[in-house]
Amino acid sequence: MTTRERPTLEAVARRAGVSRATVSRVVNGSTTVAATIREAVTRAVDELGYVPNQAARSLVTQRTDSIALILPETANRVFSDDLFFPAIIRGVGTELEAADKQLVLMMTGSEAGHHRVERYAVAGHVDGVMFASIHGADPLPGALARRGIPVVCSGRPMNAGTPVPYVDVDHAGGVAAAVRHLIATGRQRIATIAGPQDMVAGIERLAGYTGTLREAGRPEIVVAGDFTRESGIEGMRALLAREPSLDAVFVASDLMAHGALLALREAGRRVPDDVAVIGFDDFEISRYSDPPLTTVRQPIAEMGRTLARQMLRLVGGGTELPEPVVLPTELIVRDSA
Fold first, then answer.
1. Which of 108, 168, 195, 212 could join 202 in a cystine, given CB atoms 3.0 to 4.6 angstroms apart?
2. Spatial contact of 260 and 278, defined as CB atoms under 8 Å apart
3. 235 with 224: CB under 8 angstroms?
4. CATH number of the domain encompassing residue 32
5. Helix, strand, or coil here: 224?
6. Looking at the structure, do residues 247 and 307 belong to the same domain, yes or no?
7. Tally of CA atoms within 13 A in the half-sphere of 161 that contains its CB
8. pLDDT for residue 112 is more than 80
């Protein structure tokens, strides 16, 4: 049995009755070809089952039609029960699929990972790079942008000199609404389990907590977490040991809040009778926690879609950087507070 030969550009040209160059222009999206000729070429492509050689096409168009989404975390963190990454990937993927672009996922949870991503992007394997989250003053977004590679970040880069657009949410405003809710419902000693302070999300959520309590003349009771359930358990245990009279806690992520609920149950504290709990994210599982979790909703999938739209503007030939986008948050009140 012989293998059917792959149709060539020349075969399409013969079938359509045009030159090879004309077929190439049509296949690569040129708008300078007459409509009747484009229809003849398209019909020949369909009849022969011609599939463009992507490598050759990239040489002509200087495009790969692939966009990288960088997750600056280890594989263990990305594929844990943290639901932030699946939600933002879903948003990015939906938008890129509609634009007929290929999504390339890469992780940079180590120095070697940073170097690998930089080499891959600089070599021209993708048309642009998006970052799903950034730790510290990560130099990689700025380094890629200075090499002429389109870059967009989810979350404001901590390095203020990095010339890249970003998409973020109103962290501080959302937390302020949560703390004011706790004050309005009569809570007196309001603690927090803060997020990591090498990320803008962690920094701004803590700032929203401290700023609101200072305005109200209330004491600040702070322990640190890292957005994981385990750090929520440990953080809540530490708070109870330090401040046994606390009657409310704002927790900087839903996963940490679920850990806090477990620690409170372990300590025999009733929620919300003894201690009110508010999280941040509004993951679907928060509706089914015991009790259902009051939380600050951030539109993660919309962040992903907006991130992709900004990238598509950049790779589509836009000469100006898109303006930063800050999406609103919303307090969702359930039984835990």
1. 195
2. no
3. yes
4. 1.10.260.40
5. strand
6. no
7. 4
8. no
182 with 247, same domain: the answer is yes
Summarize pLDDT for 117-155 with one digit per residue, the tens: 888 888 888 999 999 877 777 788 888 888 888 999 988
Question: Contact 251/277 with Cβ under 8 angstroms?
Answer: yes
Over residues 54-82, the pLDDT tens digits come to 545 544 445 678 899 998 776 666 666 66
Name the nearest CA neighbour of 108 among 77, 142, 83, 80.
Answer: 77
Strand ranges (DSSP E) for 48-90?
66-71
Longest Cα separation, the chain? 85
Do 46 and 101 fall into the same domain?
no
Sign of CA dihedral 183, 187, 188, 194: negative
CA distance 107 to 117: 8
Condensed to tens digits (0 to 9), the pLDDT of residues 246-275 reads: 999 999 999 999 999 999 999 999 999 999
Residue indicated by tokens 């029960």: 81
Q: Which two tokens stand for residue 156?
A: 């404001």
Q: What is the DSSP code string of 229-297?
A: HHHHHHHHHHHHHH-TT--EEEESSHHHHHHHHHHHHHTT--TTTT-EEEEEE--GGGGGSSSPPEEEE
Whichever domain contains 145, its CATH number is: 3.40.50.2300
Structure tokens at 56: 């050759």
Q: Which residue has the higher pLDDT, 322 or 88?
A: 88
The answer on pLDDT for 319 being more than 80 is: no
Structure tokens at 333: 């009140």
Helix (DSSP H) and strand (DSSP E) numbers for the chain: 13, 12
Work out the burial of residue 260: count CB atoms within 10 Å of its CB; fewer than 13 is exposed, 13-18 middle, 19 or more buried. Answer: buried
204 and 155 in a single domain? The answer is no
DSSP state of 225: -
Dihedral pair phi/psi, residue 227, rounded to 5°: 75, 5
